[in-house]
Amino acid sequence: MHSRSRGISNIVIAAIIIVVIVVAGVGIYIYQSQLPRLKETMIMGTTDSVESVLDPAQAYDFFGWEIIQATGSGLVDIAPGTPNGASVEDIVPALATSWSPSADGLHWTFDLRQGVKYNDGTEFNATHVKYTFDRGIGIAHPDGAFVGIGYGDIIDSVEVVSKYQVRFNLKIRFAPFLSLMACQASFIVNPKHAPVNAPVNYTEGNARASYPMDLGPYNLTKWVRTAGKDQEIRLSANPNYWNTSGGFPKTKSIIIKFYSDATTLRLAIEGGEIDVAFRQLRASDIIDLKTDTDVKVWEGTGAFIQYMVFQHEIKPFDDPKVRRAVAAAVNRTALTKTVFLDQAQPLYSMIPIGMAGHTDAFKKLGDANYTFTRNTLNDAAIYGGPYTTSHKLVVNLWYENSGHYPQSADLAVVLKESIEASGVIQVNLNGLDWPAYRAKRNEETMPVYIYGWYPDYVDPDDYIYPFLHSSGGSWLHLNYANPQMDKLIGWARGNTTATARNSLYAQIQDLMVTDSPMVSLYQGGAWAVTKPNVKGVYLDISQNWRHWLVYAEA
Question: Which residues fall within 8 angstroms of residue 453, CB to CB, at 6 or more apart?
Fold first, then answer.
């Protein structure tokens, strides 16, 4: 009797277990069936393009850096959604899991992530970090970030402490060092694909030979260019990515299509041809698309600036009086209202509004201050002067016209109108597509030209050193040099005290107005337009487009 009862109990228990398992299985199935199914392939449209190469040792352009970020990885990253005024708390691990500075700030030690593999199976280690930075500093490409940012002025040596630990020995205390490590120029290359003495160039028909990284969320599997203009890029999920366990990248394949202008880009997103439109839609397009229920408009923090550059080797723009006279005639308010429909802000400094160290320095010259312009140019001591209503200063103003910057042609027209309203200046406009424009910059034959800037790292140094320091500014080819400016910049980047740095940047901006080697124009916003089912878009202070976070529900 007792044994029969126990047998029945065992049968009942087994039955209950089976029922629980079945119910749980059904529950899991129902839950999984309710989860959104993600598109495996997304298509991005843009009017932008890669400037030249996809090698951190040379690349120094917005879109080139976006592809580098998608196909490579740095020691650290900036947390998505970081607000204006990013700090060390916003730096998160990537190929390094932890880091620590020495008490004097001259040595930074990084503990590296273990088990990370290159695509060829080689394990990432400290020797690859040293190789990357030694290579970039050694190549010192004049148009690249290693020169523009001044890596060689900051880093004295990179030391392999152990297989998974590396130490940076600095020449100066450098306040934004962690932010510098997060920028794409600091991304780690694969020595097998990155020759030590030269950057990797585009190789037609061979995507693998066209870039030197493979530790990122994606591999570059297609890159088609025609006469230096991008036609299509394809990114495919990297199975060896160190963060695949985190569920990244969200989308397996990204196709990037390149459009000739903002009109065709808008038609592509409205017609459902692409999932994402990013750089450059017109301000009027943004306003119109906000009312379109078939798309979603994303707005984020703007740290993009544009400025007008004077070529100091071409007379009379070697004279700071002439440069100040032209600068005073600029009407920033008209520019931001007319061209950008108040989606941009007038900017009176190279340092963006809201960033530490910013002052409205150029307000000293004013907007459309034609009295100052006329009085300054009506001086017989100026080369070719005096300039009057009957003998005007001729300014040949150049701009790019292929969509690399937002509404460049409209911007140039408004600048021409505002400067010519002084009555003593004649402006002739000249437009070129981006490859030709960049080549013309390098030739140093444009007397006055318009350029733009996105942050390499979130710090005022990044808006000052690459432009105003005699070494850092070489990539821009303006030939400006002032020993006092170099000293002030050196002190500011080597000082870690906020109050002292702000004081130095105030002096730097005052001297910038006196010299007027370039003139800040406006600070733009950050915009993207997507299909409504697209998610994971972050438009933050870094200005980075993070492909691996973006996905679309099928």
Answer: 304, 305, 306, 307, 463, 466, 467
Does this model's pTM top 0.85?
yes
Domain residue limits at 92: 56-63+87-186
d(CA 182, CA 511): 30
d(CA 507, CA 543): 27
Any idea what the CATH number is for the domain that residue 104 is in?
3.40.190.10
Contacts 24+ apart (CB under 8 A), 218-223: 218/70, 218/71, 218/249, 218/254, 218/547, 218/548, 219/71, 219/119, 220/54, 220/67, 220/71, 223/54
Tell me whether residue 135 is in a domain.
yes
SS3 548: helix
The one-letter code for the residue type at 90 is D
Residue that finishes a domain, picked among 127, 155, 186? 186
Name, in order, each residue with C-beta under 8 angstroms of 29's C-beta and a sequence gap of 6 or more: none
In this structure, are 179 and 321 located in the same domain?
no
Question: Rounded CA gap, 59 and 68, in Å?
Answer: 9
Asked if residues 505 and 176 have their Cβ atoms less than 8 Å apart, the reply is: no
Bridge pairing between strands 276-277 and 41-46: parallel
| Rounded average pLDDT per 10-residue block, the chain, 554 residues | 46 54 48 70 96 96 96 96 70 97 97 97 98 98 94 97 98 94 97 98 97 98 93 97 95 97 97 96 97 96 94 97 98 97 97 94 97 97 96 98 94 98 98 94 97 93 96 91 97 92 97 98 95 96 93 94
Label each residue of 382-451 as H, E or C.
CCCCCCCCCCCEEEEEEEECCCCCCCHHHHHHHHHHHHHCCCCEEEEEEEECHHHHHHHHHHCCCCEEEE
Q: Is 320 part of a structural domain of the chain?
A: yes
Q: Is residue 133 a part of any domain in this protein?
A: yes
Domain count, the chain: 2
CATH of the domain at 493: 3.10.105.10
Q: What is the pLDDT of residue 31?
A: 42
How is residue 124 written in tokens? 């990432």
**Does residue 536 form part of some domain?**
no
Q: Classify residue 171 by its DSSP letter.
A: S
Cβ atoms of 395 and 427 within 8 Å: the answer is yes
Query: SS3 letters for 25-62?
Result: HHHHHHHHHHCCCECCEEEEEECCCCCCCCCCCCCCCH
H helix and E strand count, the chain: 16, 19
